[in-house]
Design a protein that fits this description.
Shape: elongated
Number of domains: 3
Protein name: Nose resistant to fluoxetine protein 6
Largest sheet: 4 strands, mixed
Number of helices: 14
Order of helices and strands: HHHHEHHEEHHEHHHHHH
Structural class: alpha+beta
Radius of gyration: 38 Å
Distance between the termini: 136 Å
Number of strands: 4
Strand content: 5-15%
Pfam families: NRF
Keywords: Membrane, Signal, Transmembrane, Transmembrane helix
Strand order of the largest sheet: 1-3-2-4
InterPro entries: Nose-resist-to-fluoxetine_N, O2_lipid_transport_reg
């Protein structure tokens, strides 16, 4: 009797083992049919590249053993998503997630949350033992079930794949062409569709795009533009410095063929200062206001001090005599520029709703 019971137990466990193995095999086959990235990894033996084939098999084993980095890699790849019949051909996955899998300094969490996470998984299983890369496959399909509106790319599927970085585009193309030829994906039979691989793109940013297309010409144009701006500014500053260093205060201003060009250097300096303060005001408004007011008050005080030490009297001959001291310098003339900036800000702040009454005054100034 005991022997019969023992044999029945053995038969029972053998049956459970066979069912479990069959269920697991069925699950693995389902993954192959549903997920393109897993299907690619399952055919790693077709490759001659030892490194790519080895890492694809490691990825496959990690998924089968439910190791976290393998699941995250699989989760980053694209797959058939809802909306295919209505034209959704973008099976992109997530490039940012694919690249972040290798990030060993992730977003910091509170200690209690980290402990709660590590309770259910081993942190060492979160990072792959090799580098990953994100690829994009462009695939043509011929499904007549999908609605078409006669656009150029309506039959073009964009498939994102997170795979080992050691794999080349040729490796992935070779495997995908075999998968499409053998029609092993579920969508082949579900929608009576065939696939034709057009191209595999490696989206690793090696900055080669800087040398393609119109980018070099745009860069050359920008360099030339900045060179002209810098040259013009240096020329303006040179004119200004020439005025300051001129020994003959009366002749140097009037023999110039461009007598008004003295203002160009000042205007350029005012523009740079104003632009810097405007940018600063978007982040630290009150700091910009304090700096602006300080410059304005300093300009007023400096103008008064210079007038005092030169004993300036507001007459026409004195104005010509002190042009280089009280008329041309930017630290003297920046005051009206700042007043203009403040006025512009007030008008813009009140959305042009300030009512300015026109009042005419006749002012007689006797000197």
């Amino acid at each position: 009797m005991h022997y019969v019971t023992f044999i029945s137990y053995i038969c029972h466990f053998a049956t459970l083992f066979c069912v479990s193995a069959q269920f697991r095999s069925s699950n693995d086959n389902n993954i192959i049919h549903l997920l393109p990235a897993y299907a690619i990894a399952s055919r790693a033996s077709l490759l001659d590249s030892a490194t790519c084939a080895t890492e694809l098999r490691a990825f496959l084993d990690a998924v089968d053993q439910r190791i976290l980095w393998g699941l995250k890699t699989l989760d980053s790849s694209g797959e058939l998503i809802p909306g295919f019949l209505y034209g959704n051909n973008f099976w992109l996955g997530s490039r940012s997630q694919c690249l972040d899998i290798m990030n060993k300094a992730p977003l910091e969490l509170a200690k209690q949350y980290i402990l709660n996470n590590t309770r259910y998984r081993d942190p060492q299983d979160e990072f792959p033992p090799f580098q990953l890369n994100y690829f994009v496959a462009y695939i043509r399909h011929n499904s007549t079930f999908q609605y078409h509106i006669n656009t150029v790319i309506e039959d073009l599927i964009t498939l994102g794949l997170c795979l080992p970085a050691s794999c080349s585009t040729n490796n992935i193309s070779f495997i995908l062409e075999g998968i499409f030829r053998d029609r092993i994906l579920l969508i082949n039979d579900l929608y009576f569709v065939d696939f034709n691989l057009i191209q595999i793109k490696n989206l690793k940013d090696n900055h080669q795009w800087l040398l393609n297309g119109a980018i070099p010409f745009i860069c050359v144009g920008l360099v030339l533009t900045f060179a002209l701006m810098i040259s013009g500014t240096i020329y303006d500053i040179f004119i200004y410095q020439t005025y300051l260093k001129a020994t003959n205060k009366t002749v140097s201003k009037y023999i110039s063929c461009l007598v008004w060009s003295w203002y160009l250097s000042s205007d350029m300096q005012f523009f740079i200062i104003g632009l810097a303060l405007l940018i600063l005001s978007t982040v630290y408004f009150y700091v910009a206001v304090v700096i602006l007011c300080t410059i304005l008050i300093a300009s007023i005080i400096l103008s008064g001090y210079i007038s005092y030490i030169y004993e300036y009297v507001p007459t026409l001959d004195e104005q010509y005599r002190l042009l280089d001291v009280l008329y041309f310098p930017p630290w003297i003339r920046i005051g009206p520029y700042i007043i203009g900036m403040i006025t512009g800000y007030i008008i813009r702040r009140f959305n042009k709703k300030i009512i300015l009454k026109k009042v005419k005054y006749t002012i007689f100034i006797f000197t």
